[in-house]
Structures are given as structure tokens and as C-alpha cells.
Amino acid sequence: MTDITPLHDFIRAMTRLAEDGATEARWLAEGGALLRRLVATDTWLPEACAEPGPRYRQYLLHCDPVERFSVVSFVWGPGQRTPVHNHTVWGLVGMLRGEEISTEMVAGTPMRPGQVDRLHQGEVVAVSADTYDIHVVENALPDRASISIHVYGGNIGAIARSVFDPGTGARTRFVSGYDNAAVPNLWDRSREMAAA
Ligand code: FE
Predict the structure, then answer these.
(1) What φ, ψ does residue 129 adopt, rounded to 5°?
(2) How many domains would you assign to the chain?
(3) Residues 98, 146: contact at Cβ < 8 Å?
(4) How far is the CA of 189 from the centre of ligand 1 (A)?
């Protein structure tokens, strides 16, 4: 049985950071600590946002009403990977289930791989213009799905970004959207209230 309370509490704490006018450095440090706590338990992600598909899936879990941040579950089937892409906003990635590999791609013809981060369950990394903004991400496990929770400094599915041809470095406009039409219900607190 999933209990969405940890996600509810995470979003509430992230909203308080937004209300506080957090700088990118604070989002990455304090938001990163909150995300580390969220991915430390794997009991809260609704089934509907954990299903793999024929390509990797990106399910919206929450978007701040004024688009200061968004929270997404990425579900990787075996062998699935993103195109080479950028973000344009800060991001935090926390590994909930399985493992993934993020490879920085450095501009050039062809593009060259740079820093490689292998993310294990419970770990959190940041993406930012200050570290690297262009990368490719893939499931590190050949035989099962992996799931990571991403937080971005905007409504990531609606931001005009770029995908890149790794052979030529050519850039194409990209708006990712989301794979779900409905977001999880964070607001049914009846069990908690009945128990109080
Ligand atoms: Fe990415």
C-alpha cells in the first residue's frame, strides 16, 4: 500500500523554500537534503507513476502553481536512455529504485563524453549551468526498471530546451511534456485526520 505522505511533506518543504526566495545554491543544498530524505524510503510513489513504457517515461508528480519548481518521476525500462539534452534550469536527481548513469556531453563535432555519474539507490546529484547542463541519461540495469525522482527550477515539461545530435552537435528545439494527464492526489488526509 502506498502512503503518499512523504511526497506531500517534501512538496510542502520545497514550497517553503520557494516562499523564502531561495537562491539556486540553497535549492541545490537544502532541496538536495530534502530529496535525499524523500528517496530514502520507497513506499510512497503511486503505481500509476511507476510504470515503464516502450520508451522512458516522465510522470509529473507536482508543479508549483507559479512554476518555481516541479517534481517528476522518471521510469527507465531496461536499456532505455534519453537523447542528448539540456535543462536551462537547476535540477536535482534522486535515485529511488535501481541505478542510472548520467554522462555529461561536451560541445564539439562530434560531442565528447565528459563527467560520468553512476547513481545508486538513495543518492542525489545536481545538474546546473555551474556543473554541467548537457547530458544523456540511461538505465544502468539491463534486466529491470529503474526510477529516479527529479526536481527542476521551473515547469520542466513546458520549458523550451534543446536536444543535440551527438555526431554533429546540431541542436533541435525540444519541449518534453509529461506522460500523465492527471497528477497524484496529495490532499486526501482523511486517514491522518481519522487517526488524530
Ligand atoms: Fe536531464
Answers:
(1) -60, -25
(2) 1
(3) yes
(4) 33
